C-alpha cells in the first residue's frame, strides 16, 4: 500500500530527481549518475514503474495495441457503403477508421485511401 502511495505521489508531483548541495552559498543541483546511491536508484526505479503504469493505461500493452490494429485493419479492408447510407455518414465512418488507425501508428498511404473511397 505504501508503494502505491509513493507511485501516486510521483504521478501527481513529477519524477524524483536526485540532488546534492554544493558551494557557498549553498546551491542544489542534480546529481550525476555516478553519484547516485542505493536510495536514489530505488527512487528512480519507482519513477520508471509509475511511467510504465501511465503508458500502459494510456496506450495499452503491446498485445492490446496489436489487437486494436488488427481489428481496425480488418474493418478498413471490409469497409463498404451500407444500403441507403448517406454519403456523409459513410465518410464519417471511413474517416473514423482512418483516424483510429493513425492514432495507433498505422498510416495508410493516400493512394490506397483514394482507391478504397
In angstroms, what separates the terminal alpha carbons? Answer: 53 Å
Number of domain modules: 2
Low-confidence stretches: none
Radius of gyration: 24 Å
Binned strand content: 5-15%
Q: What about the largest sheet?
A: 2 strands, antiparallel
Helix content: 55-70%
What is the helix/strand order?
Answer: HEEHHHH
Query: Based on DSSP secondary structure assignment, what is the total number of beta strands?
Result: 2
Individual helix count: 5
**Overall pLDDT level:** 87
Task: Give, in spatial order, the strands making up the sheet with the most strands.
Answer: 1-2
Q: What is this structure's SSE topology?
A:
Elements: H1 2-13, E1 19-22, E2 27-30, H2 38-59, H3 62-77, H4 87-103, H5 110-116
Antiparallel strand pairs: 1-2
Helix pairs in contact: 1-2, 3-4
Care to describe what's here?
This protein has helices at 2-13, 38-59, 62-77, 87-103, 110-116, and strands at 19-22, 27-30. By secondary structure, it is mostly helical. The protein folds into two domains: 2-59, no CATH class; 62-116, no CATH class. Strands 1-2 form a two-stranded antiparallel ribbon. The longest helix is centred in the middle third of the chain and has 22 residues, at 38-59.
Q: Concise description?
A:
This protein is mostly helical and 117 residues long. It has helices at residues 2-13, 38-59, 62-77, 87-103, 110-116, and strands spanning 19-22, 27-30.
Amino acid at each position: 500500500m505504501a508503494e502505491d502511495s509513493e507511485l501516486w505521489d510521483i504521478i501527481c508531483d513529477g519524477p524524483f530527481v536526485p540532488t546534492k548541495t554544493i558551494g557557498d552559498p549553498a546551491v542544489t543541483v542534480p546529481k550525476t549518475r555516478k553519484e547516485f546511491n542505493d536510495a536514489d536508484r530505488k527512487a528512480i526505479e519507482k519513477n520508471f514503474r509509475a511511467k510504465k503504469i501511465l503508458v500502459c493505461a494510456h496506450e495499452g500493452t503491446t498485445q492490446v495495441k496489436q489487437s486494436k490494429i488488427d481489428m481496425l485493419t480488418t474493418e478498413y479492408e471490409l469497409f463498404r457503403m451500407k444500403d441507403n447510407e448517406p454519403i456523409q455518414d459513410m465518410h464519417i465512418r471511413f474517416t473514423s477508421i482512418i483516424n483510429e488507425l493513425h492514432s495507433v501508428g498505422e498510416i495508410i498511404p493516400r493512394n490506397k485511401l483514394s482507391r478504397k473511397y
